[in-house]
From TrEMBL:
<keyword id="KW-0812">Transmembrane</keyword>
<dbReference type="Pfam" id="PF01553">
    <property type="entry name" value="Acyltransferase"/>
</dbReference>
<dbReference type="GO" id="GO:0006654">
    <property type="term" value="P:phosphatidic acid biosynthetic process"/>
</dbReference>
<protein>
    <submittedName>
        <fullName>1-acyl-sn-glycerol-3-phosphate acyltransferase</fullName>
        <ecNumber>2.3.1.51</ecNumber>
    </submittedName>
</protein>
<dbReference type="InterPro" id="IPR002123">
    <property type="entry name" value="Plipid/glycerol_acylTrfase"/>
</dbReference>
<feature type="transmembrane region" description="Helical">
    <location>
        <begin position="12"/>
        <end position="29"/>
    </location>
</feature>
<keyword id="KW-0594">Phospholipid biosynthesis</keyword>
<keyword id="KW-0443">Lipid metabolism</keyword>
<feature type="domain" description="Phospholipid/glycerol acyltransferase">
    <location>
        <begin position="64"/>
        <end position="180"/>
    </location>
</feature>
<keyword id="KW-0012">Acyltransferase</keyword>
<keyword id="KW-1133">Transmembrane helix</keyword>
<keyword id="KW-0808">Transferase</keyword>
<comment type="pathway">
    <text>Lipid metabolism.</text>
</comment>
<keyword id="KW-1208">Phospholipid metabolism</keyword>
<keyword id="KW-0472">Membrane</keyword>
<keyword id="KW-0444">Lipid biosynthesis</keyword>
<dbReference type="GO" id="GO:0003841">
    <property type="term" value="F:1-acylglycerol-3-phosphate O-acyltransferase activity"/>
</dbReference>
Length: 233
C-alpha cells in the first residue's frame, strides 16, 4: 500500500509542479489578474496536503507584516489560501532567475532580496515602504530558511528583518504553522494529508516593546512545543 501511495504522491508532485509552471506563465502573460492565478494555484497546492485547515486567532486587517515559522516550501501556498488579501512576500533573489516561475515574483510586486549584497537591504526598505503606501500586506519568515532536521524547533531569527520592521514601525502579526511538514513522509516517499493549523497571534507595534523580536520568537516556540506535545499525547 505504501508503494502505491508513493506512486500517487509523485503524480501529485508533478501536478503541483505543472500548476506552478502554468501560474508563472499566466502571471507573465496577464499580470493584471496575477492575484486570481496565485490564489487558485495556492488552493490546489494546499489541497494536496491538507485534509482540514484550522485557523486560530483573528487576522488583523490593519497589520502591515505577517511573520511566521518556515516549515516547508508550501508555507506560502498555505498562507495565500487562508488570507484573502494580496500578500507581498520577501523572498530570495534567486527565485527571480528560475525560468517562467520567475514571473510569479517579478510580475506580482514581490520583494526579492540578495542576502550577499548590503545595498539590497536599502532597496528592500524602499520597496516595503512603497507597498505599504498602497495598503498591501507584507509577509516573511524571520528564520530565513527552514529547519529540515526538526520543523518543531525554530532556527535563530535573522537580525536584518528586525531592523527593517523597526525602522518603518510596521504593525506586526505573528503566525505559527502546525503539522504542514509532516504531510511528507519518507521510506518510501509519500504524501499523507494532515490536519493543518495556522495560529495567528495578537498584533503589535515594535516601538511598544524593545525586546519584541526575542519575545515573539519565544512565544512562537512555546506554541510549537504545546501543539506538538499535545499531538504526541
Amino acid at each position: 500500500m505504501k508503494i502505491l501511495n508513493s506512486l500517487v504522491s509523485y503524480f501529485k508532485l508533478l501536478k503541483g509542479a505543472i500548476c506552478i509552471f502554468i501560474t508563472g506563465a499566466l502571471c507573465g502573460i496577464d499580470p493584471k489578474n496575477e492575484l486570481k492565478y496565485r490564489k487558485k494555484c495556492s488552493h490546489i497546492l494546499t489541497d494536496m496536503i491538507a485534509k482540514e485547515i484550522i485557523i486560530e486567532g483573528e487576522i488583523d486587517k490593519n497589520a502591515n507584516i505577517f511573520l511566521g515559522n518556515h516549515t516547508n516550501n508550501l508555507d506560502i501556498a498555505l498562507l495565500e489560501s487562508v488570507i484573502d488579501e494580496k500578500i507581498i512576500w520577501i523572498a530570495k533573489a534567486e527565485l527571480g532567475k528560475i525560468p517562467v516561475v520567475k514571473y510569479m515574483v517579478t510580475k506580482t510586486d514581490m520583494i526579492l532580496v540578495d542576502r550577499t549584497n548590503k545595498a539590497s537591504t536599502i532597496k528592500m526598505i524602499r520597496e516595503i515602504k512603497e507597498r505599504i503606501k498602497r495598503n498591501l500586506k507584507i509577509a516573511a519568515f524571520p528564520e530565513g530558511t527552514r529547519n529540515k532536521k526538526d520543523p518543531t524547533k525554530l532556527l535563530p531569527f535573522k537580525k536584518g528583518l528586525k531592523g527593517v520592521v523597526e525602522k518603518l514601525n510596521l504593525k506586526v502579526q505573528p503566525f505559527v504553522i502546525i503539522n504542514l511538514p509532516f504531510a511528507f513522509k519518507n521510506k518510501p516517499f509519500r504524501i499523507e494529508k494532515q490536519t493543518i493549523k495556522v495560529i495567528f497571534l495578537p498584533s503589535f507595534y515594535p516601538k511598544d516593546n524593545p525586546n519584541w523580536y526575542e519575545d515573539m520568537r519565544k512565544k512562537m516556540q512555546e506554541i510549537l512545543d504545546k501543539e506538538y506535545n499535545n499531538t504526541k499525547g
